[in-house]
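Feature request disguised as a bug report, sorry. It would help if multi-protein outputs had a clear separator. Right now it looks like this:
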Amino acid sequence: MPLIDIKTVGFPKTLLAGEVKKATLTISNKGQKALVRLRVRLSHPSFVFFGRKEDLEQDIYQRASVETLPSMSKMEAPNRLSDPTTLVLQLPEHDGVACLQPGETTTVPVWIRGDRVGSFNFQFLFSYEAEVRCA
């Protein structure tokens, strides 16, 4: 079976209301099989945004593409129903299959925003499946 190891770097201990801080999530597969369909369930989804590996060098996050016109701007965003507390995390592709091979590590950027004033305890629950065909 796969065995996931998660490490966080740069998660802030305190945030001001509206402040955004970037951190990273390092995901390693220490098991003997590849893992697929990595999901995370969040206790406070409005505080957290997970990016893609390609976004590691960016200081800000962007959920939709923006096209600028002379007098106005147009924003295109996906319009689909989803559960905001459960998210699918991006994994590297191997032969067309998104999976994390045994011994492989990937890093994902995470932006944390002070959505509300108060003291919060953030809980993350990760789930994944074993992939037999990913080799």
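(second protein starts here, but nothing in the output says so)
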Amino acid sequence: MIGQTPSNVALKSLGRTSTGAALAYAYDPTPRGQSQWVADFPGRRSVTVGVGEQSEGEKLFDKAVELKLIARNVAMHFNEYWQGGLFRQLDSLLDEDGWSFEDKLPESSSFKCFLRMIIHNSPKVRPGIGASHDGNIIASWTVDRDRLTVECLPNDTVRWVITKYVNGDRISGAGSSPVKLLRTYLSPYEPERWFG
């Protein structure tokens, strides 16, 4: 446990887990030039990594910080409530317990596309967010059985899939568009259903 860590060991705070438990790592040099990183949360997992390498938890933490800094650069477009909710979503998305390390971490270029999509299309409802296995941010809105899913690509293009029920009949569509024209391309499907 961190509280029992010797005084010569450096601690690095990594914030909190989704349950609010403190998350920190202790650096303990070993004679073989390796480092022991000990996580202080239930289960107390430990990972031995070479000096200069990052643990999986550190990579996730650094990615979350990177994405939050990108969002801060356009903070004038979002109110405090919206931005706080987005940051909590990023913490949940990049939580070590839920992340599959076989997947690529979210690309900053895809996250920038996501932010531009939000700015240009002005949805009043914040979407759920996820990431594809190749690092693209995915936004989704669901109202009853109607669903809109948008994959944000690094080149300011979005791919979208829509499912909507009208009088019990299922209507679906898919397409791609420049990020700033998403609402226009979705207009036949009445995007206000999801965007508010």
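Even a blank line would do. Unrelated, but nice: The radius of gyration is 20 Å.
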